[in-house]
């Protein structure tokens, strides 16, 4: 176990330490930790197909500066974490999506979000984090809901960012936004992949707040770090085979803050409102102008909002 916790400087961040953690279930997660070890920990869970670097360095730094230790990681099947090689039959994604929207179940994915929540539970144990604050974004918010309900002894407070509980008959994502996330790029060389990523940033991001140069640099950095489109599809299938979290939300006892962007067209704001309504006592915060991303413009407000939530007394 000791060898799994040998830290070295991340090539991407000067203030985070990185490590590989073997969960003991066949999965290794790539993790970065920043901040003082005696400070309360915020565990960050990222969304569909998104490497942990989608938690911007500036965002992590702002939470560290407010007295928190930050843990971010690549989910299974993405980034530098373990890849799951599926030998099962090819699944009909469109048929599964149709069933999913009206609340019917699906089967056949190599894993579901309950498996991914167990990954996070095991990570908390392996890093001896104790009880943590949890912030989940998009699919990561779905995983965070499961974590809070199923492992209440490991989650002190919960914050959810542009997420959903996938209850039946919520308005579906706008097609342009959804297919930009799961479609294949027009070309598969480096420039083609980066161009595809740039289009994605612009389609799902906060209108008027996407810095094109910064987005291009981020896209290239992510591509050079890891490119694994099969993992994106498998994570999408995991969502479709998990289904509604509505009944699970009703079991969540932790103080919860749900944050959503008013300009989110991937998961429209009604998704966040549904989550806040389902979790007992949850607070809902709608941010004007924000889409399905964390641009620098909104980080000071977001980090202050989150720091206040985690600091407040129950």
Automatic annotation (TrEMBL):
Domain AB hydrolase-1 as annotated: residue spans: 40-294
Any GO BP: glycerolipid catabolic process
Record Pfam families: Abhydrolase_1
Keyword Magnesium in annotation: no
GO molecular-function terms, A-Z: triacylglycerol lipase activity
Keywords: Hydrolase
Name of protein: Alpha/beta fold hydrolase
Gene source species: Acinetobacter wanghuae
């Amino acid at each position: 176990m000791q060898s799994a916790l040998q830290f070295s400087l991340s090539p991407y961040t000067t203030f985070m330490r990185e490590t590989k953690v073997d969960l003991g279930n066949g999965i290794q997660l790539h993790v970065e930790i920043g901040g003082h070890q005696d400070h309360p920990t915020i565990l960050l869970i990222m969304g569909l197909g998104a490497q942990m670097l989608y938690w911007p360095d500036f965002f992590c730094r702002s939470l560290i500066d407010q007295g928190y230790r930050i843990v971010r990681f690549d989910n299974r099947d993405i980034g530098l974490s373990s890849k799951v090689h599926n030998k099962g039959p090819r699944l009909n994604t469109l048929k599964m999506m149709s069933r999913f929207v009206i609340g019917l179940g699906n089967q056949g994915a190599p894993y579901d979000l309950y498996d991914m929540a167990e990954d996070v539970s095991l990570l908390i144990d392996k890093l001896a984090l104790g009880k943590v604050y949890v912030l989940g974004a998009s699919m990561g918010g779905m995983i965070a809901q499961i974590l809070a309900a199923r492992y209440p002894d490991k989650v002190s407070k919960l914050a959810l960012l542009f997420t959903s509980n996938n209850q039946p008959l919520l308005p579906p994502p706008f097609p342009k936004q959804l297919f930009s996330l799961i479609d294949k790029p027009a070309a598969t060389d480096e420039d083609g992949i980066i161009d595809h990523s740039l289009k994605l940033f612009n389609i799902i991001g906060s209108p008027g707040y996407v810095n094109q140069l910064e987005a291009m640099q981020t896209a290239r950095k992510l591509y050079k770090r890891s490119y694994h489109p099969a993992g994106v599809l498998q994570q999408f299938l995991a969502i479709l085979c998990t289904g509604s979290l509505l009944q699970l939300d009703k079991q969540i006892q932790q103080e919860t803050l749900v944050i959503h962007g008013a300009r989110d067209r991937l998961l429209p704001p009604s998704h966040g409102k549904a989550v806040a309504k389902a979790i007992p006592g949850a607070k809902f915060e709608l941010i004007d102008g924000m889409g399905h991303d964390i641009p620098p413009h909104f980080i000071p407000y977001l980090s202050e909002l989150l720091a206040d939530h985690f600091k407040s007394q129950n």
